[in-house]
TrEMBL record:
It comes from the Bacteria. This is Transposase. The lineage of its organism: Bacteria, Bacillati, Cyanobacteriota, Cyanophyceae, Oscillatoriophycideae. Residues 22-257 form the Transposase IS701-like DDE domain.
Length: 260
């Protein structure tokens, strides 16, 4: 039984690689080698270190060419449309890896923004100020670099000893002319609409931290009838409630004593 299960896993993995390979617009062989090198050397700090990995079977020039020519739109006006089509094709490739829920009756997602500091890259375009915790008292928790919005699918746990990995569905850079709220809303809308694994009738739950407890984010996704949003509340958030109607007249001065 375990042998059959292993063969099925290998076959699924091979099909996934083939689907990813087919979706690359340019330099497919170099990009697949780059993915293998990234998977085998997660501590690499420079592209040169990836070139030296045994999984990358080409020269350094091929790596830089593959990155530079990864996505080249047919014309500038069609860049946004073609990029969305590419993201949609990647969601279709990931879809077979997403299992239908069994122990819970909903799909679970996680959304967050991750800062990537790049203080020593003056030629890197569109750098912005990003949040970065600082242990030195008195220093502002900021840096300069890029930040990325990551939407992941959180699979069900199949046991205490078998904790599943999250499945990244969409990663987009938060550019200087937008913000994490707008990018996150677009990611959620696109994923629920274009990924075949998420049926419209199936309930979906999205969890996020206190940054996403803003009205702009909650209102933008409130039209999704099959989506439930769960966010943390900021520590300085103030809640109000309607005052209770008391028919009794207040004979004394000041506000009536609040009844708990």
């Amino acid at each position: 039984m375990s042998t059959i299960f292993c063969k099925d896993q290998v076959s699924q993995f091979q099909q996934f690689r083939q689907d990813i390979y087919a979706n690359f617009p340019n330099n497919r062989d170099s990009l697949m080698d780059l993915l293998d090198a990234l998977s085998g050397n997660i501590t690499a700090q420079t592209p040169v270190e990836l070139c030296e990995h045994p999984s990358f079977r080409r020269g350094r020039g091929a790596l830089y060419k593959a990155i530079k020519q990864f996505f080249v739109p047919s014309n500038p006006n069609a860049a946004v449309t073609e990029r969305k089509q590419f993201q949609k094709s990647l969601l279709k490739a990931i879809s077979p890896l997403i299992k239908a829920p069994t122990t819970r009756n909903f799909h679970l997602f996680g959304l967050d923004t991750t800062p990537i500091p790049r203080p020593f890259s003056p030629t890197l375009p569109d750098r912005t100020y990003i949040h970065q915790p600082n242990t030195i008292k008195g220093n502002k928790p900021i840096n300069i670099g890029h930040q990325y919005s990551l939407l992941s699918f959180l699979p069900e746990s199949e046991g205490i000893q078998n904790i599943p990995w999250s499945i990244p569905l969409s990663t987009q850079r938060v550019r200087s002319n937008t913000n994490s709220i707008a990018v996150g809303v677009d990611q959620v809308d696109t994923t629920l609409h274009d990924c075949p694994a998420f049926e419209k009738e199936q309930l979906s739950v999205l969890v996020a931290d206190s940054y996403y407890s803003q009205r702009q984010f909650l209102d933008a996704l409130s039209s999704q009838s099959n989506l439930v949003l769960i966010t943390r509340v900021r520590s300085n958030r103030v809640f109000y409630r309607q005052p209770s109607i008391n028919e009794e007249t207040n004979s004394g001065r000041g506000h009536r004593r609040r009844q708990r």
